[in-house]
Design brief:
Blueprint: E1 46-48, E2 53-58, E3 67-72, E4 87-92, E5 96-100, E6 106-119, E7 125-133, H1 134-141, E8 146-147, E9 158-163, E10 168-183, E11 186-194, E12 208-211, E13 217-224, E14 237-239, E15 245-246, E16 252-256
Parallel strand pairs: 2-8
Antiparallel strand pairs: 1-2, 1-5, 2-3, 3-7, 4-6, 5-6, 6-7, 9-10, 9-12, 10-11, 10-14, 11-16, 12-13, 13-16, 14-15
């Protein structure tokens, strides 16, 4: 996984005591200015977690007065990695997030009151419900939430991964899709594979993947094959429908988010029983 960044005392909680996560640098890497965007994508609406990246998101049906949602990875949850088959639903949380403006400047602190949903089964996502509404965030900070695209993205789409943790963007295209992506104990379905330009690193976990042409969120960044190993921690492999395994060293991946949209009901509540909702249930 694009590992969350944690202190040394917590490193044993992630990927086992023998596999230490990346450590936070004293300064963010210099931004890569060589990429060309078809549409300007900035940091407005992204957030920095203590160990990962994320974004304030809304569904097409979300109301301005609904409690806002922050999206990140399931492996970024403060409670640690959910096990295979585990789903976190409506779990109390007081986690805080630094909200960024378009330039990547922190403009305020948002607070959760619960983990509305979290899992590492089939996908790798966490959704926090905030104590603030979308209207309050826009009024207080002038920041609008990013909208989740309800449609499945297509191969060749120009995208930007916007990391609130590093205040850095990565631009590339959707290279294709992995029928299954296996990493250690976890299996994810229909994952996005980036073209090589998106060289995401530890701390970019949970970053929104934004369609350059529409500005909508199509995925959440989560992992990459670091060492060329097959299906091990930090070295996901692709498994085709016929069972063929492919290892792509240095390739990075994201989990699609269009499937979240049918699961967001009235009042922005996650309702896994809604028609069309296929997220894993507890």
């Amino acid at each position: 996984m694009n590992k969350p960044l944690v202190g040394a005392l917590l490193s044993v909680l992630f990927l086992g005591a023998g596999i230490a996560p990346a450590t936070a640098a004293t300064a963010a890497p210099a931004p890569d200015t060589t990429e060309v965007h078809t549409k300007a994508v900035d940091f407005a609406g992204t957030v920095a977690l203590s160990n990962c990246s994320g974004s304030v998101v809304r569904a097409p049906s979300s109301g301005d007065d609904d409690p806002a949602l922050v999206m990140s990875n399931g492996h970024c949850l403060e409670s640690g990695f959910p096990g295979p088959g585990e789903v976190v639903l409506d779990q109390a949380s007081s986690r805080t997030f630094t909200l960024l403006d378009g330039a990547g400047t922190g403009v305020g602190t948002l607070r959760a009151d619960k983990v509305a949903y979290g899992t590492m089964t089939d996908t790798d996502v966490s959704l926090y419900q905030l104590t603030s509404t979308y209207a309050e965030i826009e009024s207080d900070y002038g920041i609008e939430a990013l909208e989740l695209d309800a449609a499945r993205p297509t191969e060749g789409t120009a995208i930007t991964v916007a990391s609130g943790y590093w205040k850095r963007t990565y631009s590339c295209d959707i290279d294709g899709f992995a029928y299954q992506l296996k990493e250690g104990s976890w299996t994810w379905k229909d994952s996005i594979r980036y073209t090589p330009a998106c060289e995401t690193i530890g701390g970019t976990s949970g970053s929104p993947v934004i369609d350059d042409a529409t500005g909508k969120v199509v995925a959440v960044n989560n992992t990459g094959n670091e060492d060329g190993q097959e299906c091990t921690d930090n070295n996901p492999c692709e498994v085709a429908e016929d069972g063929t395994v492919t290892v792509r060293e240095g390739t990075n991946y994201a989990q699609q988010t269009y499937g979240i949209v049918p699961c967001i009901g009235e009042g922005n509540k996650i309702d896994l029983n809604l028609s069309g909702c296929a997220l894993p249930k507890p």
